[in-house]
Amino acid sequence: MRKALAVLIVATGLLVAAGCGSDDDEGGAGGTTTTAAASCEKDALELVNAGQLTIGTDNPAFPPWFEGTKEFDPWDPTTEPTKKGYEQEIAYGIAEKLGFTDDEVEWTVVPFNQSFRPGPKKFDFDINQISFAPERANAVDFSDSYYDVEQAVVALESSSVANATSLAELKDAKLGAQIGTTSLDVINDKISPSSEPSVYDTNNDAIAALKAKQIDAIVVDFPTALYMAAVQLDGGKVVGRIPAEEGGEHFGVVLEKGSGLTECVNDAISELRDDGTIDELEQKWLTGSAPVFE
């Protein structure tokens, strides 16, 4: 793509070790690799700022992806990082595998839609619930998956669609999603509602619209949906999960196109999977359930 959580969410993450290939090759989980077989020794890494790993994410950053003493702004020194939240711990885990201490990690603001635009980057990698998509991978490198994604529908318990059990029952609903997200694609491609979905700059804007009853429901990734329903909405409900296509949707770390760091990040993610860290973090941050739409 975001306070202690009262919510725990379910998901299974599949992480695949990266292979080497051409600039246009995609890794086994849809990641992108580069031509260079660059050394992954810390001193040999191509970095935006020498001696430090610069990581991007959006502002604000929300649980369960990030968590701190208050709504965590990773780049704001007044909000001390507590290495909590799924993506925050994944990011620091990658950094550690690359040889960086916590003090050598710097955070920078990267709005969601700017993270995968073409051109030079001010970050070494960005982690922000960014789903791999071929068109995005034309502009940036994607790492292999660090989380496999399902989309879900959130509504108020008073909504006309609160008890929907099938996608067909959502056809006449006024739905909303954040601009540039795969959630918006899912609305258009899988639900195909009779009215145009409402599009918002942020999920906070979508939540405000839902509270004001300007929309009937929000489509968002499943972990965020459960957090919205339990914490951000009074009387919120996860109506259901939207079945994923074969091969599924997954989040990947984003890097500049052709980055020499890409395969090193893939190696780090693979190590986090192999040593059990990924599974441990999923169990810690992303456990729970919701029905699947017919």
Outline the structure in words.
It is a single chain. With 294 residues, the protein is α/β, with parallel strands linked by helices. It has two domains: 42-149 and 248-285, Periplasmic binding protein-like II (D-Maltodextrin-Binding Protein, domain 2), CATH 3.40.190; 151-242, D-Maltodextrin-Binding Protein, domain 2, CATH 3.40.190. 24% of the residues lie in helices and 21% in strands. The protein contains eight helices and twelve strands. It has helices at residues 86-97, 112-115, 134-137, 182-191, 203-211, 222-232, 262-274, 277-285; strands at residues 53-57, 67-68, 81-84, 105-109, 125-126, 140-149, 151-156, 175-178, 198-200, 217-221, 236-242, 249-256. A five-stranded mixed sheet has the order 9-8-10-7-11. A three-stranded parallel sheet has the order 4-1-5, covered by helices on one side. α4 (182-191) links the parallel β8 and β9. The model is unreliable at 1-30 and 32-37 (pLDDT under 50).
